Each structure stands twice: as structure tokens, then as C-alpha cells.
Known about the structure:
This protein is an alpha+beta fold. The protein is 42% helix and 17% strand.
Amino acid sequence: MKCNLNALLIIICLTSCQFQRKDKMEQIYSIDPKSLKCMTILPDSTKKVPLCNRFMEGGMDFNHADFIRSEPRMLIDAINALKNCGFKFPDENFFKRKVNEVFKMKIDDYNDNILALRYDLMPEIAVNGDNFILLFNGNKGSGDSVDLRNICHYNNLIFYEETKEIAWFKMNSPSFINDLVIEYGYTGNKDFLNYAFSKLDFLNENSLVDLMFDLVLEENKEFLCFRYDMMDKIVELNPPDGFTLLTSLIDLMIKNPEEYDNPEKAVAYIMDASCKAGVWGNAGFVYDMYPEWRKKLQEKNYYNLKNLTEYSEKFYDEDKQRQHKVGWEEAIINDPDGYINIHKDPNAKSEVIFKIYKDQTFLVFVVDNKDWWSVDYKSQRGYIHKSRVSLK
């Protein structure tokens, strides 16, 4: 009888504990919408209007801040989710510093506490005062607009860059890490950069433009601003094909200068970074294609860029044929076996993805100080050792 009574007491205790844990996991915090600091609009005429808050495309005219204020339940759901997962809300100064560092948004410059961080129908939202990032899911406008699955992971990732959260996003939602690097240009975490670079097609011009420029919106215009810090990271991390299409970016800026912020300085910076990485041909390309640029940059003292100055003054000779080459060239194979293996990565141990045979013409991207060149054959891409190539 005593044993049965003890067993009964244990069952009651376990059941009670289970209910307590369940109640704790599903705790709903009572939050008065009027207590949310972000609901306040700042009547300060000296501050800027956040243009990304208003999305106008495809016949739509949608204001993110107005929508959120009209549906405070979203903010309450988000705060509840963050509290229940144990998220440590940052203080005001840390919140503003991280938003500026990651998203390049200076919160104090704007007259609103709800700020869309990019121009998009589903942007990330900085909620100033309550100090977190709001995420939408694909059901915007319905009763479950907040991305409750990712919001806790995302805020821990942004504000604390926890290793476990990085691993979680790589496994479950890798697009968030890619967006931090490509959409926002965040360069403060090498793990983020290496992951995004490994997924990016550096041989796609549009992808490279997305990586290397910020879209800046102003009242009456928009323009592209070069990401100098991203260029530094490409030099440092040297991803495969990282320098291959930079001449395309140079071309775009020289031919359409009105679309860019300080395009001359940006071109000079690409030339300098390429020289630093040993890809001299990118700088030579500018002087070959646009001879007037040598004088133009010389008058600006090459923007005090050491590598560009050295290359321009010592190694480039406009009166002789330049030795350093860069660009796509037609070629055939040069191999006694009558065919050559094309590898996935620039090394002989890499996977063979296709073969090219004798007398078949293909394109190679020539960089004379690199041993492995990119190949384009019938829309297939890979790498070939330059010793097996004969240029036409």
C-alpha cells in the first residue's frame, strides 16, 4: 500500500511538472500596445524620411510602418516569441550600433522608429525603442504575418552572432546569411562571407553587381555606391573567380558614370585591389581600353592607392605591348591525348565535370599570372590548366 501511495505521489509530481513546463513554454506576456515605444512617430523636420518604408511597384503603394502600427498584434506576437526563447534584448546604444554595422542604417538619422532595412515588399524591419528586428513571412497582410519560426534565431544571429545560430541558418534558412552579405554588404563576419562567397556565381554579372554595390535611395534619385570594404574582403579571402569579371564592373562605371557615386574613385580602387592580388590585367584593361584614364588618375595622384601607383608608374608601358593579359579568349586544347579534363575547381584533384576534345573551340578567361583559367564551353563552366591551352 505504501509503495502504491509513493508511486501515486511520483506520478502527480511528474504530471504537475510537465504542466508547469508547458505553461512556461507557452507563456503569453500581457503587453499593452500603447507601451510599445516604436508606435511613436517622431515629429522632427530635421530628420530624414525613411524612403524604404514605402514600397511602390507593380501598382502597389504600401507603407510598412503604417501597416505595422495598424496591426500591433504583430509586434506583441514577435516580442512574446523572443521572450519565450530567452532572447536578451539589447540596450538602445548596442541596438543602434549593430543595426548600423550590419544593415548600414543610422537609426538616429530618421524620423520614424519603424524602419524597413531595404526596399522590398518583405524587408527586415528595425523596431527602434523595443530593440529587435521584425521578420515577415509569406503571409503579409494576414493574421500570421510575423515569421515566428526564424525571428528568435535571426535576432540572436544579428546581435550576438552565436555559433549555434550560424550553423542553424546554414542548415535551415541559408538565404538569410546570403542576404546579410549580398543584399546588405555586411563584411564583419568571415564565416558569413566565406559561406556567401561559396554560393555566389562570380561569373554572373548581375550577381557581382548585387555583391559590390549598395542601392542608395534619395528623394529625387537613386544611385549605386561601391562597397570598398567588400573589395577588401575579396582580396583577403580570394574566392574562386573573384577577380574574373571585375572588368565588367569597371566598364559599367566608366560608360554610365551618372548611375554611380564617385565612379572614378571606385574604378581606381578595383584597379588597386587587383594589383594587390596579383591580377595586374584588370588595371591594364582600363589603360588599354580607356587610355585617357591613365592621365586622369595621375592627376588625382591615383587616389593615393599604393599598388595602383606602383603599377601605373613602374610596370605599365603604353608604348609597348603589355605582357599581362586578362579577358575571354577563344582557344583549343593542347594535349597529346586528344582531350582534356575540365575540373569543377581550380586544381587537378577537383572533380572532373566534362571533357573537351581536339579541335573543339571554347572560351577561356586569360589571367597570365594564374595557372588555372576559367572555361566556358556550350554554357558549361569549369577550370583548365593554362599549359593545356592554345589561344587562337
